[in-house]
From TrEMBL:
Belongs to the SusD family. This is RagB/SusD domain protein. Keywords: Cell outer membrane, Membrane, Signal. Residues 323-447 form the RagB/SusD domain. It is found in: Cell outer membrane.
Amino acid sequence: MELMMKKLNITLILAALWLSSCSDLLNTEPEQNISDEAVIVDEKSANTALVGVYDALQGYATSNIIGVDLASDNVVNYNNQNNLVPDLTPNNAGGGFSAIYKMINQANFVIALVPGVQDGFFTQEERNQVLGEAYFLRALGYLDLVKTYGGVQLVLAPATGPDTHKGTKRSTAAETYAQIGADLDQAEQLLKETVNRTRATRFSVYALKARYFTYLQNWEQAEANASKVIAQAGFKLVKPYSAFFTGKTTEESIFELVYSTSDRNSFYTNWLSPADGGRHDYIPAREFVSQLLDPARGGARKSLLKQTAEGSWDLIQYGKPDGSSSVFILRIAEQYLIRAEARANKAAPDFTGALADLNAIRSRSDVPASPLTAASGKEAFNLAILEERRLELPFEGHRFVDVVRTGRSASIFGAVNANRKNQQFNVLPIPLTAIQTDGDLVQNPGY
């Protein structure tokens, strides 16, 4: 993933995002009269700007989920159901590249301007909260970029004009991860240990750090951060399994994007049949459906699916036709699976602890306890955890990354599509629209 590139000119993208973000945050006209200095001037506009960052996250989250899920073996296009693990092209890969940068740019405005706000009613505690959330959201954006496209250009200041970031070069994956870690450290220092399932808190940071350190195979830190979240009484595995997505902000959620009938999530239209108000763009892959329906593997997780009149299976995790389905960025089930993987892989493995975490997930979903024992060994545990992650977190954007980061893309994806044995395809291509917008933007190798 550590790919370098020639000169990268992202100014056209970011200049456009600068203008749109200013307009969104201030809701004033005309657009061209808004300067960066006017975006955040007091406590009220700082919080308005922060809400704009969350709105931008809503704007890209589903695009990233479907981009990486279609690249895996969990999801197919309804009209091309036999094309499992397809070849990726700049025309069809998606992933939300430009939309992620829109969120990052808006977070950059908050990070750059909030420290200088002169407002006697804006306390240091409130200021820290706003800044901490912005650092967390920027870290999340870059983590979604690096897992999807590899090392990317690091833009850490707001785009205030058409040439602000001209000539910015692409960083390596290692440099991108280092920036993510720095942002998460800042967020941890600024945020409080409170439970708020719709806004970033220090527990959100712990949970994202656990994922981050898993990607880096820093197992001690992955376990430590996951354990901090699991130990918090406010987070629990809910039963039945379907409760976390049929309800809203349940104890399952650490960080959840909440929608309503007035702030609708249109993701349901991609997954439901026309009879239920959707377009049937995507469906779960047939082979994977059989696993979810297997009582010994999927158990209660079959509740993610609904069979249609013609016999296919729709995903109903995002299926509320009023547009109020949540998108789950962080939930407690992932933390148990992160800790299981970390315990099995750290220098002094704790297979007993790993098995306990794995069985906590299986028990919640009414699946028999794992046949593994503490003597089964690291490879057996890793395979079991990878399968459990597929079944537990199937449509939340994890499968592609899990297969790639565990070094199994050639054996799993390549078994379906021989072209995917090429490790160059362990990242998605930059979308063609971004390449066309910026003539200096160099595509990932192989595309």
